[in-house]
Amino acid sequence: MDDLSRSTDDGNGANFAATEMAAAERVINIILTGMKNYPVFPADHASTGSLLQGVQQSIARFNDEFDELSFEVTQKQILYGDKPVYSGEASADNPAHVLYRDGIRWVVFTKGVDEAELAVLFKTFNYYRVIPDEPEDDLVTALWRADLQHILYEASYELWDAELQSDLSQFQPTSPHPSPDQEETLSDTSKWEKLRPGSADYQQVSIVVTPEDQGLWNLTPDEQQYIGALIQEEQEYDSREAAVRLMFLVLKHEDEIQVYESILSYLKEEFCSALFSHNFRRAYFILDNVRKSGVSLASEKPWTVPTHNRFYDDITRPLTLQPLIPLWPVLATLPGAEIKNFVAVLQCLPTKAGLTLAAMLAQVTSSHARGLITEIIASYATRDLMVMEVLLCGPDEDLALRMLRVVRDLPDRQEAMRLLGLVTKNSSQKVRVEAGRLLGWQDRY
Fold this sequence. Notes:
Blueprint: H1 12-37, H2 46-66, E1 69-73, E2 77-80, E3 83-87, H3 95-101, E4 104-109, H4 115-129, H5 139-146, E5 151-155, H6 158-170, H7 190-193, H8 221-236, H9 239-253, H10 257-276, H11 280-297, H12 304-315, H13 318-321, H14 336-348, H15 353-360, H16 367-383, H17 385-392, H18 397-408, H19 413-423, H20 429-442
Antiparallel strand pairs: 1-2, 1-4, 2-3, 4-5
């Protein structure tokens, strides 16, 4: 890679270099994140395709603007030019460490790299991320066999060569019974035949393990606790949540509307799946981050606004929220943390969800659940008077009476009078009477 500092008379070179550095840091982090998360789903899963597509398009945009993308690999960092753009611990979770450990010192992505090449790179990396017990080859050899046309690398064998030379220089065959034969040169290969299994003169050697060493394999309580924690961490690892987090990272930097829409569609499916499995923590995570993405990108990328609006329209449809119906009867029996997550999900939904929940309310018999849902719906109505109008004139008497209490507390008295006037058309006499009482009460202001 050419030196990032390009000299120009008007100083535009420095600005260009800064722009290139920022773009390189973004793309390299997308590549490494994709590399780590590639095995989350099967190779033919739609999410894997979206991941590869996002990474490939990010690289292609960089190639179009700045030519090839090349970076240096150190033991714990990735360097672009001489600036660290990625850092981590010396572990298998750090792609830089894995690449460096296996001898890779530079990686280059040239124009034309496609999703198939990225899939080979990511699959190969993850196969050798943890060194196999009996490795047939290594990461560098596997990449050499793959012969990727647009993904190049530079490997260093210095450490391997040094260790090999050291071992060979010190290797001197000896015999337990010295004889004049040892004085002969090693060029007489017949002497080595005795060391080959299967030869006529081969002598097998037995190794006896002394019982004193058996204590080495007993784990201390601290070691047992540490291993138990690692096992528990692995069992609790949520691969789907890892994929969702990756999609949000790609979404943040995505500039293609079709890819952006595809990612939001995937997130909608994951939200529906989380609701169906009653994983409200993940459902809340998705909603909260979609909201944050929409807010942060609305001014910078206004074309994302309609896409987010369609996302919200879809997740508030009755079919999407239908999985909540079996939950109502057992809601009170859930742990407190689960109820908290459940309420957080409902509060993050768009206000039009109040109408969908209101239609479901007739199927809820638990008084505790009805009270909770009614309060959630009231919070929607407080933020959206259109929802308020529909609910005031709706068939659910308890819900309409609750809306009247919301109307009573509105700071805008003129708006409150208008809404109370609409209630006179409600089919419930009890609701009409209460509205009339509030109308008389409002007249005193």
